[in-house]
Amino acid sequence: MDITDIRQAQERIKPYLKRTPLERSETISGRLGTNVFAKYELYQKTGSFKARGAFNKLLSLTDEQRGRGIVAVSGGNHAQAVAYASTALGLESVIVMPESTPENYVEATLAYGAKVDLQPSIAAAFEVIEDYQSKGMTFVHPFDDPLVMAGQGTLALEILEDLPETTDVIVSIGGGGLAGGVATAIKSVKPDARVWGVETVGADAMTQALEAGHPVKVEITSIAKTLAAPAVSETTLALAQKYIESVTLIPDAEAVREIAYIAERLKVLTEPAASCTLAAAEKLRDNFSPDSNVVLILCGGNQSVKDLCGHL
Fold first, then answer.
1. What per-residue confidence (pLDDT) applies to 309?
2. C-alpha span between 28 and 32 (Å, rounded)
3. Where exactly are the structural domains of the chain?
4. Looking at residue 137, what DSSP letter applies?
5. Which residue, among 142, 161, 164, 162, has the nearest Cα to 152 in the 3D structure?
6. Contacts of 140 (CB under 8 A, 6+ apart)
7. Does residue 34 sit in helix, strand or coil?
8. What pLDDT is attached to residue 24?
């Protein structure tokens, strides 16, 4: 996956997606003493960036592959994205989800037209994928796929088109597909810009992989369920090692605090996976000057009000 793949993805998926806004926040800029912009990717189709990668993958399949159906594993935003993209393209899809998946995610996935196969755990969900593949269905991996990563990277091209003066981008990391695609695009187009990663404590697969020098399995305890990849891949780890300045770890409590702050000041409801970028910016503020142009990627907003009230 390189910048050519990302540019091709941008053209391929353009008819199916929104171009999400990038706006300067006076309040956050004043708070951090620099110029801070929010990339409102939570306004994307299905409420997160995931639709970009899903559409790029599905639009790259042959007619024969499309006719055999699509299968994916997800307890979060990838589920809704694959379901929506499949239905929009007239394809049948099955999303295998762990039983712990929040009810609003299951309902949304069904509403987007997919069949849902609930399994006892995320590990069990991955185990049944081979059964579906044996029937000829195409598996759409949530992050370890060059077409998926290229699709996610298209949002970075939009950032640079809207704000050529970008100096820093802060991006959340789950399995690393978004961060890998974004970092590849940013560093290819503007090598002097910096990309900073952020994870929540208890969903720190990339942090542990960077420390170990290889992917490791982690126990997920964070409330940021959309960052809950049990491990990153060799590919996403390599991209982080090559392009990302550092990964900042944020406690759940700080991510929740910033959800409330963002809701009050920016008037949008984010997930912990998105609000943690603001918490990371606070910790990284000494790296920014008054002339810096810092972009926070608000990657998703698919959190139920019930869950939010439980966190606050």
1. 66
2. 6
3. 3-49+145-311, 51-139
4. P
5. 142
6. 54, 57, 58, 70, 71, 72, 78, 82, 148
7. coil
8. 98
- CB of 56 closer than 8 Å to CB of 13: yes
What is the distance between the alpha carbons of residues 15 and 296, in angstroms, rounded to a whole number?
25
Q: Check for a shared fold between 3-49+145-311 and 51-139.
A: yes
Both structure tokens of 49: 């960036």
Helix (H) or strand (E) holding 124: helix 122-127
For 191, counting Cβ atoms within 10 Å of its Cβ (0-12 exposed, 13-18 middle, 19+ buried), the class is exposed
- Per-block mean pLDDT, blocks of 10 residues, the chain (312 long): 97 97 98 98 97 98 97 92 98 94 90 96 86 96 97 98 98 97 98 98 97 95 89 97 98 96 96 97 98 98 75 66
Please state which CATH number belongs to domain 3-49+145-311. Answer: 3.40.50.1100
What is the fold of 51-139? Rossmann fold (3.40.50)
Query: Is the pTM of the predicted complex or chain greater than 0.85?
Result: yes
Given CA atoms 202, 203, 206, 212 in this order, what sign does their dihedral have?
Answer: positive
Q: Can you tell me which residue has the tokens 């990657």?
A: 299
